[in-house]
From TrEMBL:
<feature type="domain" description="Aldehyde dehydrogenase">
    <location>
        <begin position="21"/>
        <end position="478"/>
    </location>
</feature>
<dbReference type="InterPro" id="IPR029510">
    <property type="entry name" value="Ald_DH_CS_GLU"/>
</dbReference>
<dbReference type="InterPro" id="IPR016161">
    <property type="entry name" value="Ald_DH/histidinol_DH"/>
</dbReference>
<dbReference type="InterPro" id="IPR016160">
    <property type="entry name" value="Ald_DH_CS_CYS"/>
</dbReference>
<dbReference type="InterPro" id="IPR015590">
    <property type="entry name" value="Aldehyde_DH_dom"/>
</dbReference>
<dbReference type="GO" id="GO:0004777">
    <property type="term" value="F:succinate-semialdehyde dehydrogenase (NAD+) activity"/>
</dbReference>
<dbReference type="GO" id="GO:0009450">
    <property type="term" value="P:gamma-aminobutyric acid catabolic process"/>
</dbReference>
<dbReference type="InterPro" id="IPR010102">
    <property type="entry name" value="Succ_semiAld_DH"/>
</dbReference>
<dbReference type="Pfam" id="PF00171">
    <property type="entry name" value="Aldedh"/>
</dbReference>
<keyword id="KW-0560">Oxidoreductase</keyword>
<feature type="active site">
    <location>
        <position position="256"/>
    </location>
</feature>
<dbReference type="InterPro" id="IPR050740">
    <property type="entry name" value="Aldehyde_DH_Superfamily"/>
</dbReference>
<dbReference type="InterPro" id="IPR016163">
    <property type="entry name" value="Ald_DH_C"/>
</dbReference>
<protein>
    <submittedName>
        <fullName>Succinate semialdehyde dehydrogenase</fullName>
    </submittedName>
</protein>
<comment type="similarity">
    <text>Belongs to the aldehyde dehydrogenase family.</text>
</comment>
<dbReference type="InterPro" id="IPR016162">
    <property type="entry name" value="Ald_DH_N"/>
</dbReference>
Amino acid sequence: MENLLQDSGLLKTDSYIDGAWITSNTTFDVINPADGQTLVSVGNATDSDAKAAVKAADDAFASWSSLTSYDRADLLHKWHQLMMQHQDDLALILTLEQGKPLSEAKGEIAYGASFIQWFAQESIRVYGDTIPTQDRHKRVVVIKQPVGVVASITPWNFPNAMIARKAAAALAAGCTFVGLASGLTPLSALAMAELADRAGIPKGVFNILASDDAPSIGKVLTRDALVKKFTFTGSTRVGKILTEQCASTVKKVSMELGGNAPFIVFEDADIEQAVQGALASKYRNAGQTCICTNRIFVHQDIADTFTEKYVSAVTELKLGKGIDAGTNVGPMISAAAVSKTHDLVQQAVAQGAKLACGGNLSPLGESFYPPTVLTEVDNTMAVAQQELFAPVSPIIQFNNEAQVVAMANDTPYGLAAYFYSRDISRIWRVAEKLQFGMVGINDTAISNTAAPFGGMKQSGYGREGSKYGLDDYLDIKYLSFAL
Ligand SMILES: NC(=O)c1ccc[n+]([C@@H]2O[C@H](COP(=O)([O-])OP(=O)(O)OC[C@H]3O[C@@H](n4cnc5c(N)ncnc54)[C@H](O)[C@@H]3O)[C@@H](O)[C@H]2O)c1
Ligand SMILES: O=C[C@H](O)CS(=O)(=O)O
């Protein structure tokens, strides 16, 4: 695999702890979802390695947090520059281990790097307060201080950006960081560590663990008292487990969890714009993003027109390997993911849904599933209630605003929602009533470093990116002076 890279030094296969690439007694294989072949074998970090990483981060905290925010920003800017300088190699590594089209992988590298740049800039704007008191002999001042060691566990679907979105804020705030990458996609995280090393980020400040035993490593990271903040991105199911595990040491916790995004097309929408928006939101990363459209609600008056245009556009999407030019939709992460998806599609058809396109197993390989559209779906079906994380569009008809808002909100999730309308009164009414942390209005390209990314309900809590993104990594302290 290294011979495919311009800089073979970016292919790292061991965990990075305290500025060193550690050796492991056992390894696990990283599989290319496009062909099921082993890319490389990676050293399997152990619980002891996780404890060592936490200790290294704790040892490094005093010196890292004592740097000025300008000093930290300089190092983060250098890291950002190196990420962009090596964007092509990082994207190729990402596509090979995760499957997304190369163009999307390049976009993810730029998106991940933008968080490093953003928080380098934000770090020099961590302000406190002076508070007027009723006592002339008293002064009250508020200061903000980094919480300490941050531990993180992240998913396979954005193996660069989900780590960058956390680590950049943590380091900018003056914290030190231990990240466990997904065992399915560790290579992107290890390449980030290589570039952090090259940027001159001191040893112990940024540590990356690779392991195929996340539950075991997770118990260390959630229960070690030296870890003061735990941040997770992944499924709601696992988020609940980890939140419970963090309770034993009362850590600060942030959770970026699952989603079930409604996409509503009102009768006054620009239908062509809605078709393009749904296409982009649904089939990005083969539908494997937390903010992908999960249910498409179309007003009955325009349902036939929208569906005809949408199905026509979906059938134009090219299914293929991520490294192949022209691929719009790559493989899913595994054959198991395809099997789960196909079962949901078949179950929906058995319950009365109609297959407008796709819905068959692909000759390209066991991890490929064709872009699929189901019509005459009911909001109570599993294909509408579950987070699909797949290239499948369930279309549900509605006949009035109150009904569709109720259906859209009828989910334990509350991450992203989208709707298309040109009625400004309706836009405000619906935007305020939708119970989701992020709402796209005639827009589905909502991921934005400057905006506070996060959810409500069982999609989690905490915000990543934006001017709010440092808050989760800072303690607020006030000083009361008697003069
Ligand atoms: N809200 C967001 O920002 C966001 C972003 C990306 C993905 N996600 C969500 O992530 C999910 C898909 O990713 P996934 O399949 O990797 O999710 P997952 O929850 O199965 O795994 C996430 C990470 O947790 C690890 N893990 C699994 N079980 C664990 C345990 N018991 N203890 C410790 N670690 C454990 C995994 O190895 C992986 O690294 C979807 O639900 C998606 O919506 C959310
Ligand atoms: O999968 C979830 C990611 O957070 C989506 S995005 O990378 O923020 O667009």
